[in-house]
Amino acid sequence: MKQCWEQVAGGVTAPRGFRAAAVRCGIRQAEGDDLALLVCDTQGAAAATFTTNRVAAAPVRWSRRTIRRGKVRAAVVNAGNANACTGARGLRDVEATAARAAEVLGLRPENFLVASTGIIGRYLPVEKLLEGLPRAASLLDPSIEAGDRFARAIMTTDTVVKQVALRCDLGRGSVTLGGATKGAGMIAPGMATTLSFLTTDAAIERPLLARLLRRAVAQTYNRISIDNHMSTNDTVLCLASGLADAPAVRDGSKAAERFEAALTELCRILAVKIVADGEGAKRLVRIEVVGAPTEAAAVAVGRAIADSPLCKCALHSGDPNWGRFVSAAGYACRRLDEARTKLYIGEVLAYAAGAPADAPISRLAEAMAGREVLLRLDLGLGKAAATVWTCDLSKEYVAINADYHT
Amino acid sequence: MKQCWEQVAGGVTAPRGFRAAAVRCGIRQAEGDDLALLVCDTQGAAAATFTTNRVAAAPVRWSRRTIRRGKVRAAVVNAGNANACTGARGLRDVEATAARAAEVLGLRPENFLVASTGIIGRYLPVEKLLEGLPRAASLLDPSIEAGDRFARAIMTTDTVVKQVALRCDLGRGSVTLGGATKGAGMIAPGMATTLSFLTTDAAIERPLLARLLRRAVAQTYNRISIDNHMSTNDTVLCLASGLADAPAVRDGSKAAERFEAALTELCRILAVKIVADGEGAKRLVRIEVVGAPTEAAAVAVGRAIADSPLCKCALHSGDPNWGRFVSAAGYACRRLDEARTKLYIGEVLAYAAGAPADAPISRLAEAMAGREVLLRLDLGLGKAAATVWTCDLSKEYVAINADYHT
């Protein structure tokens, strides 16, 4: 399909019908806003995906229920405390948050998705959050600046704000999609946590939105890894206001195809931003696995490389120690055949037919020297392919996650 | 079973009927011996386990065949080059090695297991090795010192020699077991590689020895992790000379039970030594998972903690950020129930009934401050249990594996 989208200014407030706000309520020790609100002006459609960790944070447990009830139109997000491993008290704190948000905004508690990021296993200082809510509500605004502030407030150890907006041409009329996300980071220190908030002014039914979001997340958010530790708080929410000047997106239509392509691209851009800003990382690594017997096998090989500290250390220093990548593929794919496997670093063939290719080490080193590195593995076994994104492992990662004490 | 073994001096040459030697042949850049020989004076029994990585080094491919033929009675080992990802030339180099060793020692090529450790994807400087073999053969000796020298020659980034010997009381008569192993380390830099050479003077049939070794390895070597990157060269060889003053160990006998207990203990001691000397590590971590629905589930939970860089960073700094351990259990065990899960750090209860226990953070920190740390997870789901050993992740690990360039 021809590219049907273009990037436009802004983030979650770029589509019509969304307002955002952020304030500091003092939950996190670091400076800056730590409470954010996102509100959709209409009762459109909402869909979300959550962590599959059996240890799910209280806000995830609350939000799963509200998403099932189908009435979500706003999100309350805090940084500085993940409200995970907090038992019954954690759930009571989420309920109080939703109740107060409902009161302040004239909505119902089940209209609110709640998301938290930060340290695990500490009770949420909920009073601070409740105090902050009316202030946040009074600042709700549809401007790009308000969206910026939202995106900034959900950051933890992220070093850059992560947001994007796309205009998508549906054929007849166009829609806008926006999003903000936070990186897999630590706070004071907490857990690797990914939160993502997506918005669109498309008119779309909830089941279709849910299906398209699930597919987009599978191809993007679920194909990144910084440290292979699944969060207790992962949440990707997508809200649709239906306020665009375009006909509704119907299942099976050309417009649905285009919308899905744009939604996937939105998720891809945000997910890759997370990896590019991985804790202590200096390189973004794109691992393309082709010639795989199945897509699952391709993903497994990509993940094995992405999750190997040995591979990540080589990627950090730009060391063309390609045996590490090949050996990771060897334990990830039971059907791997060395004789058919090829490894390219950038455009340079490093390994083929079970032995080193002829590339001089200087060319391989050059291919690993940039801010972005491409590894391409051709398994020679079939037609399936997948891309996985990761980053390098540095002393700074250890410093961020070890030297900082609870 | 009452403990039937006691530790005695020495390593691979402690049992009767074994001679060892090591020389420097110049394969590795670092100083010291890099070619080692271990010979059994009789044609007793031999058994081995190998890496399950589909990318298996040439020596592993050779040795699998020789083990199947049932005539192995010696090992040629080199450090400095893993001879992995080296295709047909790699195999020819192994064949040449075995042929020369056979010539020098008056044996046949299929009597030799060959093992290599070091950098992957570089051709072995086989001439150096062939030159070193006669010198090594001339030094073969049954002394403890010769065993020491063997154990030292197989080291890569290991900082301490790893060997042990046990005397095992079989009821009627006793046997000795010895072993030397190398750590999961890098060389110049290579891959994490574990080689282990076990010896015994017990008289035992090959099928029984093979079964007991497989079980012992499953409980010990296969339950350690330093960086979750499976080597292309892993080899555990056990040679039995049959020269002890004790009746043969028969399947199903009390003696077999005792021998298995001692063999497992031998492997456990050596495997734990590997983890204790993990690259850059300062803590040995024992993860006991109990109350699991199955042994596999217990191992999976232990491994998830052992393989999480986040958990390992907390273990490095002694930070009692226990949410990291619980959350890893949450993604490793699909049946995990937060309400039933308990986490102890040392003797201190950190988490129970889905929420923080009352332990003051200072007590938890104290339990994590030592050279050895115990994590104990009770899943409350069943009667299965498993122990996994790991170490912490430090900046030194990154330095060893990143700063050193190929």
Here the CATH topology of the largest domain in chain A equals L-amino peptidase D-ALA esterase/amidase
Strand tally of chain A: 17
Per DSSP, the total helix count of chain A is: 11
Assembly context of the chains: homodimer
First-last Cα distance of chain A: 50 Å
Strand order in the sheet with the most strands of chain A = 10-17-12-16-13-14-15
Q: DSSP strand (E) fraction of chain A?
A: 25-35%
Kindly name the structural category of chain A: alpha+beta
Largest sheet of chain A: 7 strands, mixed
What do the pLDDT scores of chain A average to? 91
What percentage of residues of chain A falls in helices of 4 or more residues? 25-40%
By CATH's scheme, which homologous superfamily of the largest domain in chain A applies? L-amino peptidase D-ALA esterase/amidase
**CATH architecture term of the largest domain in chain A:** 4-Layer Sandwich
Gyration radius of chain A, rounded: 22 Å
Summarize the helix and strand pattern of chain A as letters: EEEEHEHEHHEEEHEEHEHHHEEEHEEH
Can you describe what's shown?
- Two copies of one chain form a homodimer.
- Chain A is an alpha+beta fold.
- The first copy, chain A, has two domains: 5-274, L-amino peptidase D-ALA esterase/amidase; 284-403, Ubiquitin-like (UB roll) (Roll).
- Chain A is built from eleven helices and 17 strands.
- In chain A, strands 10-17-12-16-13-14-15 form a seven-stranded mixed β-sheet. Chain A has a six-stranded mixed β-sheet with strand order 1-7-8-9-11-4, sandwiched between helices.
- In chain A, a hairpin with a 2-residue loop joins strand 13 and strand 14.
- The termini of chain A are far apart.
- The relative contact order of chain A is 0.15.
- The model of chain A is unreliable at 185-192 (pLDDT under 50).
